[in-house]
Design goal:
Elements (H helix, E strand, L loop, with lengths): L4 E3 L33 E6 L5 E6 L5 E11 L5 E9 L16 E5 L8 E11 L4 E3 L1 H31 L3 H17 L3 E2 L4 E2 L1 H19 L1 E2 L2 E2 L2 H20 L15
Parallel strand pairs: 1-5
Antiparallel strand pairs: 2-3, 3-6, 4-5, 4-7, 7-8, 9-10, 11-12
């Protein structure tokens, strides 16, 4: 069964509303995960006070991105499903900073409250020094998400600029983006290497979702529904997103790092 990659929430100041529904709880440092020799990073499960996965950075460089896969089991020990969470400060809420050396961070939402046990696995980690840890296919998945993110930013920016220049009304732009998002997601295959949905669905959820939500709900100077005012604000947010990504990842023109088919 395909599992959807979920991300922490990206929020912005002023007129811009939240873009994503999945939440990662930031909590530094109470109790490190058990470390094995040579582990650059480790993860443990904590049921209290709420089910969560706790990641600890054992490396000398901050963690700038990671993927956790969690397996859920019933009281009888039967596997009932799995979920995947991607954490990447370059795409997430600005309050979610990289995980510093020796620090821990806990993530809610990846463990199913209805199941008896949860087994989180740290599938991929990228550090600020560009070293990595984990399964190469999953590391490639994380880099692929970043690459798709930049490509989707450019595509949606172009749509918004053309819509603004053409004088399209707010609902027409929303409909255009919603139809585009639906058609893109319907055509996205499963990643055969990691058994998750391709990176394009993640970037589509983040970028297109941000634009749609802001066109629907954001206000500029106390007024909403005016794309001539709202679109410049959205484009400014996108520019900040691009800057955060450029700080941790190679440019879109670099050689592709996606999983081999």
């Amino acid at each position: 069964m395909r599992s959807r990659i979920r991300l922490a929430r990206f929020s912005t100041a002023g007129a811009v509303v939240l873009a994503l529904s999945a939440v990662a709880l930031t909590a530094l440092g109470s109790g490190a995960a058990p470390q094995k020799a040579g582990e650059k990073a480790s993860v443990e499960y904590s049921a209290q006070p709420r089910p969560m996965a706790i990641v600890t950075n054992n490396h000398s460089s901050p963690i700038t991105g990671l993927i956790i896969k969690s397996w859920h089991r019933s009281a009888s020990g039967r596997a009932t499903g799995s979920s995947v969470l991607t954490f990447d400060p370059s795409m997430n809420d600005p309050t979610y900073e990289p995980i510093g050396s020796g620090q821990s961070r806990s993530f809610e939402g990846i463990c199913n409250l209805r199941e008896s046990t949860c087994q989180p696995e740290l599938k991929a980690v990228i550090f600020a020094d560009d070293s990595t840890y984990g399964d190469p296919d999953w590391v490639a998945e994380l880099r692929g998400v970043r690459r798709c993110f930049l490509e989707e930013l450019a595509a949606v920016e172009l749509i918004l600029r053309r819509a603004k220049d053409s004088g399209l009304d707010n609902q027409a732009i929303i409909s255009l983006l919603e139809e585009r998002r639906s058609s893109l997601k319907a055509a996205i295959p499963e990643n055969s290497a990691t058994r998750t949905i391709e990176c394009r669905v993640v970037s589509t959820d983040v970028i297109d979702g941000t634009a749609i939500a802001n066109l629907k709900y954001a206000s500029v100077s106390g007024k909403s529904g005016n794309p001539q005012k709202t679109i410049p604000v959205i484009l400014d947010v996108f520019q900040k997103m691009r800057g955060k990504m450029a700080a941790v990842e190679a440019s879109p023109g670099s050689p592709p790092a996606g999983p081999k088919r």
